[in-house]
Every structure is written in structure tokens, then in C-alpha cells.
Amino acid sequence: APQITDHQKHTRLQATGLERINMTLFQSWVSSANSPSTAFPLNNLPYGVFSTKDKDPRCGVAIGDMIFDCLAAEEAGYIDLGDGIVFDVPFWNDVMEMGPNTWKQLRNQLMRLLSVQAAEQENLKTVLTPMAEAEMHLPFIIAEYTDFYAGRHHATNVGTMFRGAKNALPSNWLHIPIGYNGRASSIVVSGSDIRRPWGQIKGPNETLPRFAPSMRFDIELEMGAIVGTNSDGPVTVDEADQMIFGYVLLNDWSARDIQAWEYQPLGPFQAKSTATSISPWIVTKAALEPFRCQTPVREFELLDHLRDTGPMLYDIDLLVSLAPQGKGNSTIARTNYKEMYYSSAQQLAHHSTSGCPMTAGDLLGSGTISGPERHQRGALIELSWGGKNPITLDTGERRSFLEDGDEVTLSGAAHGDGFTIGFGDCTGTILPALTDPYNR
Ligand code: MN
Question: Cα–chain-centroid distance for residue 148?
């Protein structure tokens, strides 16, 4: 394949100066939404599913420290998507399937209703629930789950550990976003506990495998892209971008000792089937629009069907923290979504090349997001370099991999001028492995 010339690189760099739009805070009559530190200003309006002791699970929108009850608002006639009652279900899939025009219509209605100019604000106070009183649920029915491996620093680091520096990046890596089909059944919402799995393990100095609890249980800091419309046949990168409904934070819990033994030649299987956690709020593509940025300069030009057509990554600061049981939090990694080599639109386009139908509610994991520096690594296997170089937490403990009782939190935010588009935390606490997983 032809290598990109310096001139082409320079031209692409010049094209990255994207003019940012809508970069100031929109004022809401919900006063907590106007705080510069809130994750949920009027500019954001992310979609979730919540319940309270009086309300069954239902669709809601985060605004400041409150949740706007979509079902109550629809029943009272404040929201009308032109198709009768839409919000009488505890998931966002039905709205997704109504398509991008409806997504825009809903966002416009919410923007108007929650704006400081809204005439209905006294009446609308009755459809707000304090976030502190709500329990969050999975925001959509996950149709299927695919996980990619599209962060170059992560792939290089892990490849170096598994195969040596010379063969770190597989020869296909710079040409296609590598992925595997994961399990939708084990996706859980933030706050769910994660049980340390058992599995078949063979250490480098063992001649035969054994069945044991994973001792190298790890995290992966990722973004999850949610497919909002169906496809039948291959889609272009631009069409794929149009199909994406929104994004969540995603932790792809990974048992490295199980993975190291099982992964050849078909990739991860049980190592990543225990659980995948996602943050509770779907941040829409519309809210992230001002933060679009370019993918990195290409080492090899991508084939036409995957070629970059515009800025399709987002400038989102990401952070991982870890708190041992009963101890305080330490930040263990800071990075940014713009470190990805492939955008979610490119991943989705690649996913459809075979004719594979994509479905509203499909979830695409980005792959672990690491930056070039040690403190920017989005997995413990990289941070501790396979356990050879444990990290030290602010509270003094050392970590190569997760210990029982550890609570891990992913957080993410795009920073505008005086406002923040936050995602809401994605947390999980490690429960000890069962004494005997077959003793039921
Ligand atoms: Mn992953």
C-alpha cells in the first residue's frame, strides 16, 4: 500500500482547525443546570432510564441535578413526537428507531421546554425528580455488542507484552479496525457489582491448564457508541456517522490470565464475557457536535470505504480512578477520546462491509483508550506493564491488577467555554470469586 507523503500529512493537519460552534452555556430555568461545574447543562440533555420509590423505570433527561420525566411530560402534552405515547417503555430503543429527524425534534422540544425563556416552567416543575432520589437502569436494550481494538497506543503496548515489540501491531491493524463480537447479555449499568470470574488458565511456566479464579482481572477504559438506526447492507462512513445515536462510557472488564491462554487464534472469549459496565446517560451526538475533531494522521491511506470524510472523533477528557475497599479514590489514568485511531463511524462502516445488518440498540466498544504517556494508559495491564511495574495509589497500596473490594470509576467530560458536557460516572466494585462456582 502507498505510504502517505509529508505533503499529504501537512494538508490533513491544516484541515484539523475546525471552527467550534455553540460553545457557550445555554441558560435553563433549572438553576443547577447553569453551574459551570454541572455535567448536565442545557447544552447536554443526555437520555437515561430511572426509577424512584414511587415511579416505575421510565425514560428521563438529565438537567442539572434533576431528571426530566419524559413519560409525565408526554402525558401532560409538553412533548409530542407525532406518534401518540412513545415514552411508556423503560428504554430508548423506540425513540432511536424513529430516526434522526425525530431525534432532532425531541432535542428541540426539550431545549425549548427547559430554556430560561420557557413559559411553562412553573407547570414543568412537577415533572422533575431530584437525581439524588433516583435509581438508574440500563438506558436501552442492548441488541448486540461488538468490541473493537482501535486505540493505537493500547494495541502497541499490549502487543509488545504478548508478542514482542517487533510484532506489536498486527499487519492488518493500520488498515481495518479490528474487533470481536462480544456479549450483550452481560452488559450492566454503572453501580453494578462485578464478581471476579473463574476460568481456564495456563501460566507461562505451567505445562497444563487449571480452572481457577482470575488473578489478573483488569479494566479497559472505552467509549461505547450506540447505533440508532437499522442497516441492511454496507454503509459508508458518512452514513454510519448519521446512524449513531449517542455515546456512553464503557468499562470492558478483562481477565488477562484467561485471555492469554484462550485468545489464539479467534480472539477474546470468556476473558471478556463476565461483565461490561456502561454509564447511565446516553450523551447524544448533537450534544457532542461542538467537540468534533480529526482522527490522527494516517500512516497508510485507508481504503476508500473507510477513508476519513470529516472530523469524526470528539475531544473528551477521560479519567480512571480506583478506591480500595474503605479507602479514598486515586486517579490512575487521564487520557482523551481523540487518541483513537479509528472513529466509531469507521468501526460501524467496517462492521457492515460484509452485509452484516446493524440494529438500533447495537453497542460498539471503541477499544481501550490510552495516550502515549504512562499516566495516560487506560488499562492496568499497561499501567503496571503486565504486573512487572505495579502502580502506587495515593493511599499507599500497590496495584498490578484489581483486588477484591476495589471500586473503579470512569468519568468523561467535553469542556466548552464555561460549560461541561459530562457523561455521569461508570463505576463497579469487585466482589471476591465464589468459593466453588459450580456449587448451586
Ligand atoms: Mn475492550
Answer: 12
Per-residue pLDDT tens over the stretch 90-110: 999 999 999 999 999 999 999
- What HEC string does the chain produce? CCECCHHHHHHHHHCCCCCCCCCECCCECCHHHHCCCCCCCCCCCCEEEEECCCCCCEEEEEECCEEEEHHHHHHCCCCCCCCCCCCCCCCCHHHHHCCHHHHHHHHHHHHHHHECCCCCHHHHHHHEEEHHHCEEECCCCCCCEEEECCEHHHHHHHHHHHHCHHHCCCCCCCCCCCEEECCCCCEEECCCCEECCEEEECCCCCCCCEEEECCCEECCEEEEEEECCCCCCCCCHHHHHHHEEEEEEEEECEEHHHHHHHCCCCCCCHHHCCCEEECCCEEEHHHHHHHEECCCCCCECCCHHHCCCCCCEECCEEEEEEECCCCCCEEEEEEEHHHECCCHHHHHHHHCCCCCCCCCCCEEECCCCCCCCHHHCCCHHHHCCCCCCCEECCCCCEECCCCCCCEEEEEEEEECECCEEECCCEEEEEECCCCCCCCC
Using 70 as the pLDDT threshold, list the residues of the chain that sit under it.
Answer: 1-22
Cell 430508548 belongs to residue: 92
Cα 239 to ligand 1 centroid, rounded to whole Å: 25
What's the distance, Cα to Cα, between the start and end of the chain in Å? Answer: 56
Instruction: Cite the active site residues.
Output: 154
Taking CA 320 as the corner, what is the angle to CA 319 and CA 321, rounded to the nearest 5 degrees? 120
Distance 145 CA to ligand 1 centre (A): 11
d(CA 200, ligand 1 centre) in Å: 20
Q: How far is the CA of 311 from the centre of ligand 1 (A)?
A: 23
Contact predicate 254/271, CB 8 Å: yes
Radius of gyration of the chain (CA): 22
Which residue, among 378, 383, 392, 397, has the nearest Cα to 327 in the 3D structure? 397
Ligand 1 centre to CA of 20 (Å) is 31
| pLDDT tens digits along 52-91 | 999 999 999 999 999 999 999 999 999 999 999 999 999 9
- Map 395-423 to HEC letters: CCCEECCCCCCCEEEEEEEEECECCEEEC
Q: What is the distance in A from the centroid of ligand 1 to the CA of 181?
A: 11
Q: How far apart are CA 68 and CA 110, in angstroms?
A: 9
Sequence letter at residue 83: D
The cell for 52 is 424512584
Using alpha carbons, list the distances in angstroms from residue 386 to 162, 163, 379.
9, 13, 10
